[in-house]
């Protein structure tokens, strides 16, 4: 017998399903309310289902690596006896202020990047400009690229204080400011640790300021007295770093997470190439008697394969 009895209850059931690298999420919510008053019982049930689809990054697999047909799409051989860089192919970034890394140089657009005997010479000099005691150059490719092989043949400076880099940044910050939209470091070298070459990537989840960047370091003999080929092969699902044709590091985000998002793989947008020689910062204090050090580039070559886009 029910005697002036009031009961109300709520039951919620949620089911979650995740499928492979294309993440399908289905949420089913069942609401059941039960009200009993005196001798009358009423039950009402409402069910709603919502399905969303989140595509994992770096899951592109419709290409046959062995059949990639690479063609040269950008190059600069710097094949003049003397001169200045081709400003159709290259753009200068100028200024000082440390560049977020406590760097000491002022990047100029004249006097620090010249062509000499068939090479591009980026010279860091002990000379005052603005608030800086050193000058140097930072050059960006005039074009941006999505996927390909990026090859730079270079001879590096030596000595404490030097920090040359061959690297890439996104043409636009689609996923947010650095590091969310990514960075690709094809080669970094610091003069306090000669002949040790660094390859790194930086993303929202993996970057150096929180100590999570994905990186590799290898010893390359005679980096400051011999030319070496520094290369990254950028594919839709991985980055392969090499020196003189020898692979030293591969970044595949699926080695770290099962379903990468832009936080691990922002590398589905166009990036441009950067050549620069910084002073200070990670490079350390310039050595006593520093006058000039040089990053010498023999050539830059960029290749792309049409069948990566088909």
Question: Describe it for me?
Answer:
The chain has strands spanning 10-11, 22-37, 40-55, 70-76, 82-83, 90-92, 105-107, 113-116, 119-129, 132-136, 138-141, 148-155, 162-170, 183-188, 196-202, 214-219, 228-234, 239-243, 246-251, 271-279, 292-305. The chain is built from no helices and 21 strands. It is globular. With 310 residues, it is mostly beta strands. The termini are far apart. The model is unreliable at 1-21 and 24-45 (pLDDT under 50). The strands form three sheets. Strands 4, 5, 7, 8, 9, 10, 12, 17, 18, 19 and 21 form an eleven-stranded mixed sheet that branches. Strands 6-11-20-13-14-15-16 form a seven-stranded antiparallel sheet, with no helix packed on it. It has a three-stranded antiparallel sheet with strand order 1-2-3, with no helix packed on it. Helix content is 0%, strand content 48%. The protein has two domains: 10-55, no CATH class; 65-308, Sandwich (Jelly Rolls), CATH 2.60.120.
């Amino acid at each position: 017998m029910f005697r002036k009895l009031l009961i109300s209850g709520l039951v919620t059931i949620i089911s979650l399903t995740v499928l492979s690298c294309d993440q399908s999420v289905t949420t089913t919510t069942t609401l059941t309310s039960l009200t009993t008053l005196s001798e009358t019982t009423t039950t009402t049930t409402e069910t709603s289902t919502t399905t969303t689809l989140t595509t994992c990054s770096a899951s592109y697999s419709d290409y046959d690596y062995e059949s990639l047909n690479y063609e040269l799409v950008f190059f600069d051989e710097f094949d003049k006896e003397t001169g200045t860089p081709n400003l159709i192919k290259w753009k200068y970034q100028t200024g000082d202020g440390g560049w977020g890394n406590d760097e000491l140089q002022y990047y100029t657009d004249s006097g620090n990047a010249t062509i000499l005997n068939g090479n591009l010479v980026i010279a860091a000099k002990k000379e005052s400009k603005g608030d800086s005691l050193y000058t140097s150059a930072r050059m960006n490719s005039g074009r941006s690229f999505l996927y390909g092989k990026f090859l730079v043949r270079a001879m590096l400076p030596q000595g404490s204080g030097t920090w040359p880099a061959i690297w890439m940044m996104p043409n636009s910050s689609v996923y947010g400011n650095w590091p969310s939209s990514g960075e690709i470091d094809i080669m970094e070298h610091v003069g306090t640790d000669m002949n040790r070459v660094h390859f790194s990537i930086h993303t929202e989840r993996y970057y150096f300021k929180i100590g999570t960047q994905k990186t590799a370091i290898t010893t390359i003999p005679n980096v400051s007295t011999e030319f070496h080929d520094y290369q990254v092969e950028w594919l839709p699902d991985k980055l392969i770093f090499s020196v003189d044709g020898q692979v030293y590091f591969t970044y595949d985000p699926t080695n770290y997470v099962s379903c990468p998002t832009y936080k691990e793989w922002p590398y589905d947008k166009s990036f441009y190439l950067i050549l620069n020689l910084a002073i200070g910062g990670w490079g350390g204090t310039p050595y006593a008697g520093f006058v000039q050090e040089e990053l010498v580039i023999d050539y830059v070559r960029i290749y792309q394969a049409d069948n990566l886009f088909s």
